[in-house]
Amino acid sequence: MVFRGWLRVSFIEYPGKISTVLFTGGCNFRCPYCHNPELVFLKESLPQIHENIVLDFLQRRKGMIDAVCITGGEPLIHTPDLFPFLEKVKQMGFLIKIDTNGSLFQPFQQISQAGLADLWGIDYKLPFSLYKKVLGEKWHKNCQSVLDQALKNPNQAEIRTTIYPPFHDEKTLFEMAEKCSSANHWYWQNFQPQKTLSEEARTISPYVPSLLNQWRDLINNHIQKDLIVIRPYS
Ligand code: SF4
């Protein structure tokens, strides 16, 4: 397995744990607001980090690092190589978190059933009624299946959404909340236009934080639960 980026130590990526964060290259989506376009398009300048270097690092930091977080890009497009790497990490005793755009149901199931993910970070990009229109017919069913499956184990899933004005408003967010109300939390992150995959997205103004706070409170009150948590942009 080859990674294309590495943050050696993070105190925020795995809740309550010290983690190391590995970035995979390539993605099957082209979200206009994506803030990692160099990973999506696999820029030549990205490093190539072989798993042996990572495993050696982990071996020497047992007891200092608790968890390994895999993010991207879309990690699950690499499942044939990622799976044996995860097995080695698990055998070493580390917790594992994997981020996914939720579009690859079979790999998600394969890794989940093997017990190789202690925590999933799952994108919930749009109301499912809009998935087809914005991301294409192909992904609609898979994304719904991954979310449904993840919500069966809410302690093992962080559901998160980048709030992007062309996709989200009060109505769409209410619609989305109905589908994920059994999650422990639904994390919102406000869209940032400074660095995006699409040029057009850079011309779009994010919602003002007070409006997001207002929608959060309305939805949380409606479903009688502190479901929505707004996270700072990272
Ligand atoms: S935001 Fe995530 S799913 Fe979308 S293009 Fe970027 S890496 Fe892929």
UniProtKB/TrEMBL annotation:
Gene name of this polypeptide: queE_2
Enzyme Commission number: 4.3.99.3
PANTHER family in alphabetical order: GLYCYL-RADICAL ENZYME ACTIVATING ENZYME YJJW-RELATED (PTHR30352:SF13), PYRUVATE FORMATE-LYASE-ACTIVATING ENZYME (PTHR30352)
Source domain of life: Bacteria
Keyword rRNA processing belongs to the record: no
Name of the protein described by the UniProt record: 7-carboxy-7-deazaguanine synthase
Keywords: 4Fe-4S, Iron, Iron-sulfur, Lyase, Metal-binding, Oxidoreductase, S-adenosyl-L-methionine
TM segment ranges: none
Species assigned in the record: Atribacter laminatus
Cofactor(s) recorded in Swiss-Prot or TrEMBL: [4Fe-4S] cluster
Family under the similarity heading: Belongs to the organic radical-activating enzymes family.
InterPro entries reported in the protein's UniProt record: Aldolase_TIM (IPR013785), NrdG2 (IPR012840), Organic_radical-activating (IPR034457), Radical_activat_CS (IPR001989), rSAM (IPR007197), rSAM_sf (IPR058240)
PROSITE patterns, alphabetized: RADICAL_ACTIVATING, RADICAL_SAM
Classification via Pfam families: Radical_SAM (PF04055)
Domain Radical SAM core: 13-231
Keyword match Secreted: no
